[in-house]
Amino acid sequence: MAAELHVELVAADRSVWSGEATLVVARTTSGDIGVMPGHQPLLGVLESGPVTIRTSDGGTVVAAVHGGFISFADNKLSLLAEIAELADEIDVQSAERELERAKAEGDESAERRADVRLRAVAAR
Amino acid sequence: MGAQLRVYKRRIKSVTATKKITKAMEMIAASRVVKAQRKVAASTPYATELTRAVTAVGTGSNTKHPLTTEAENPTRAAVLLLTSDRGLAGAFNSNAIKAAEQLTARLEREGKEVDIYIVGRRGVAHYNFRERKISEQWTGFTDAPSYGDAKKIAAPLIEAIEKETADGGVDELHIVYTEFVSMMTQTAVDSRLLPLSLKEVAEESQTKGEILPLYDFEPSAEDVLDALLPRYVESRIYNALLQSAASKHAATRRAMKSATDNAGDLIENLTRLANAARQADITQEISEIVGGASALADATAGSDK
């Protein structure tokens, strides 16, 4: 039986996902990072982007994370984000509409948000 | 119906209508308190994780940051006051405002200039009426604040802290809000948010006596702290907003409950008075009839003879 790590994915206003996982891949400001059980304690700044969690029962959970932090210690990993959404919760059509609108209006932050959502869905 | 009785009846009707309204408001507030409390609870995991992370950086490195450095000679302080947009909440707003006034007086005694930042229409109205300067104000979301609102509030405050005092920046940031202790107790409290004392944060989070591991910082301790501290301030403001909202709803519920009770008492008193008036009317009518009848009887008896 493979070693596991406990993952907590929390947004500012709710707890999004928690459970056991074998691998978590996230993008920090200095590049993608993969965390497996027994990793050394880590505290990093996340870029907006999809986070992939390989759960211990073989499934994969993908979440769109907009800024935040990753911290790992004692086999417990926490992903903190101001906004975090599971890929399953994302409505592709509305995200696409949002992207179109943001592009048309030149709203960069909204465009980035919509883009992150779509990438998370694509990575699912 | 006697004139007196009609007046009582009319007053009973109007008080009954008022009672129905306050009762409805009480019930709405009661359901909102529960919702607001749930929001406070939902925001707790993020806040605790963030506090842990700040502690980890604070203890794991000797990084200096403008948000954690005490000014040698603080000359200007910012006070963030959280009130509500709507009244009908008993002493909720006046307590918060009073706490802010006391804090302002204390800071001025210490020789600091005070800039006031206000959330909520009530606080804004209070300061505008007295023609006092408000540095910045936010309104329209106090009943159900979102994290975005907290970000909006935190941005100019952090900017002010990071600016040099000579250029209009501030050295300290205090926050005045109403802490939600329980359904019955809400207290207006003030606390110093910035500069942040990492030691205090550490004490706060290490109640369980755990020893923090030596973290690897990605990309570097400075960058992590740089990104972490503003988020920490935002999350503290967000928590204060949520507590303030929950307190406001609890205060409204209590105020409306006592209004409903008072209306009930008033109706009872008025009903008694109305009954007495009706009885007096009846008594008078009877005595008039009896008087009339006996006068008639006397008259007939006289004509018989």
Automatic annotation (TrEMBL), chain A:
The keyword Transferase does not apply. The keyword Membrane applies. Signal peptide: none annotated. Residues 5-83 form the ATP synthase F1 complex delta/epsilon subunit N-terminal domain. InterPro entries: ATP_synth_F1_dsu/esu, ATP_synth_F1_dsu/esu_N, ATPsynth_dsu/esu_N. It is found in: Cell membrane. Residues 85-112 form a coiled coil. GO terms for molecular function: ATP binding; proton-transporting ATP synthase activity, rotational mechanism. It comes from the Bacteria. It is a peripheral membrane protein. F-type ATPases have 2 components, CF(1) - the catalytic core - and CF(0) - the membrane proton channel. CF(1) has five subunits: alpha(3), beta(3), gamma(1), delta(1), epsilon(1). CF(0) has three main subunits: a, b and c. NCBIfam families: ATP_synt_epsi (TIGR01216), PRK13442.1 (NF009977). HAMAP family: ATP_synth_epsil_bac (MF_00530). Belongs to the ATPase epsilon chain family. Produces ATP from ADP in the presence of a proton gradient across the membrane. This is ATP synthase epsilon chain. It comes from Streptomyces flaveus. The gene is atpC.
UniProtKB/TrEMBL annotation, chain B:
The keyword Cell membrane applies. Gene3D superfamilies: 3.40.1380.10, ATP synthase, gamma subunit, helix hairpin domain. Keywords: ATP synthesis, Cell membrane, CF(1), Hydrogen ion transport, Ion transport, Membrane, Transport. GO terms for molecular function: ATP binding; proton-transporting ATP synthase activity, rotational mechanism. InterPro entries: ATP_synth_F1_ATPase_gsu (IPR035968), ATP_synth_F1_gsu (IPR000131), ATP_synth_F1_gsu_CS (IPR023632). One of its GO terms (cellular component) is proton-transporting ATP synthase complex. It is a peripheral membrane protein. It is found in: Cell membrane; Membrane. GO terms for biological process: proton motive force-driven plasma membrane ATP synthesis. Belongs to the ATPase gamma chain family. Produces ATP from ADP in the presence of a proton gradient across the membrane. The gamma chain is believed to be important in regulating ATPase activity and the flow of protons through the CF(0) complex. F-type ATPases have 2 components, CF(1) - the catalytic core - and CF(0) - the membrane proton channel. CF(1) has five subunits: alpha(3), beta(3), gamma(1), delta(1), epsilon(1). CF(0) has three main subunits: a, b and c. NCBIfam families: ATPsyn_F1gamma, PRK05621.1-2. This is ATP synthase gamma chain. The gene is atpG.
